[in-house]
């Protein structure tokens, strides 16, 4: 019996497959049921400790990390006082400024791999110190605690002494109630941990058990820096100083719905010279004749490519992930190889829709009480609004809900509202989503809040319910914008003029050319026409600004000053006719649809005071949540594929954060139209 007892003391607990987090979506999980932790940038690791202190470190995909991180073994044993334990956590490296440094961890891993190859079985020592950050406790003594709620597991974990906090410590947790007591919000906490150099924030449901091997909505991740696991599926030969090596890697990931491996773009930056050489040698040994994707990747993307078995997992940073059309990582930068992740675990990034009120909309009471079943009352600025059907899916293909539409308009409001101010709004509403019936709404609907600004203007059309005036909404602040979004007004359209006191219609301050691709053409041909318009308008002393229509076409604007409402249409028509004469095989200036196939129609009539165009940053009622997006002229000139100028709501939020409001130039560059 004594021998069996000694054997039991040296028995390391079994490995427990780690629980995985789901993407958290655009809105932070909020409420007393949530606890938050800083999201760490390292190697996910399970630390298994025997009663006698023997320790095994296991990666997320079951690799043995013990020899690589031997200095972490046995550190926790003293605090356990002879008990076994299984800890879930992350191995990280801190730099001299106290920030987690994933690149240093990757460099250390490279040195270990060379050591293991050249000196197998010899202890590995490295000057870069590592630290195990525990965030969950799965077993303590003889008690498996995975079925206990998260809050109880955390309490047990925090009671385990950590004899050497420089090598092993516990990730700090922030319960929602503690944040509230400190007058902090989850968003404020995310901002703080991001500023401190962490990767983002984890939100964990306090009542949830630990579910081994499953990706659960009870854990949500909200990264500040977008990071994605990728499969290396091929490479392009390098040029110049990279001759003989790869120039860029061709990437893939699995569709979580079908399991198919799909092409998601490429990466050519972020490699050190040593990493490029090592990875190239590794890929040469995995060469195959054909690509590994379920569908053919775009020919222009993979010309001259060399294909490999999709066995190498890497990690990239990226600026945005486009989901309209074909999925693509944009502006990706290589971070390193991930030995701790299996190829089958690499899946496409997906938004995780969570129906919630917009971030700036706070409850009217500490806990909003439902009104009329599916309504919730929120405070937006100084106004109270009743929002309804927040979980209704308005974009079925992407699963985008009304809550997320409201969230988009809330976040884009600072750049959108200046372009709506003073302009009577025409809304296109989609009460049952983009697959259902849509209708134009000019008159303010019954039940609109009394504080909503409106303007009554004459209207000659007999179709306007027999009236000779229309009461248009004016959307000039965030509450009005949220009110419109709650009506499922996905599209907002405005004229090229504003209203003044009286009210009176002021002269146009914008000139617009609406480039509409006919059958057989696309936004690529529109971009070529836009380049010609840019040259002419610039020569005429105007400052053109381009934006996508959010549908198929492109629009070119210029800020103008005029006293004649008919002048912009006359000027635009003459210019459109000029381009049609010069290039009749590409441009048409006539409205008849029969003459449009194979050509780009320059719709000059959008300058008519009775017409409207989609506002910049407005969503469109298409299959995907595309946005009418201001773009640079470099992007116009560089457009060679339709997807180059397709932007969704998520993309546009990121663009505005990166480059600001490109459409703002219109207000600062107004000029007189030339005499023709």
TrEMBL record:
Pfam families linked to this entry: DNA_ligase_A_C, DNA_ligase_A_M, LigD_Prim-Pol
Domain ATP-dependent DNA ligase family profile: 123-255
Record CDD domains: Adenylation_DNA_ligase_LigD_LigC (cd07906), MtLigD_Pol_like (cd04863), OBF_DNA_ligase_LigD (cd07971)
Entry EC no(s): 6.5.1.1
One of the protein's GO biological processes: DNA recombination
UniProt source species: Allokutzneria albata (Kibdelosporangium albatum)
Reaction equation(s) it catalyzes: ATP + (deoxyribonucleotide)n-3'-hydroxyl + 5'-phospho-(deoxyribonucleotide)m = (deoxyribonucleotide)n+m + AMP + diphosphate
Enzyme class: ligase
Alphabetized Gene3D superfamilies for the sequence: DNA ligase/mRNA capping enzyme, DNA primase, PRIM domain, Nucleic acid-binding proteins
Region annotated Disordered, chain positions: 344-373
Organismal lineage: Bacteria, Bacillati, Actinomycetota, Actinomycetes, Pseudonocardiales
Record keywords, A-Z: Ligase
Family of the protein in this entry: In the N-terminal section; belongs to the LigD polymerase family. In the C-terminal section; belongs to the ATP-dependent DNA ligase family.
PANTHER family, A to Z: BIFUNCTIONAL NON-HOMOLOGOUS END JOINING PROTEIN LIGD
The protein's name: DNA ligase (ATP)
GO molecular function: ATP binding; DNA ligase (ATP) activity
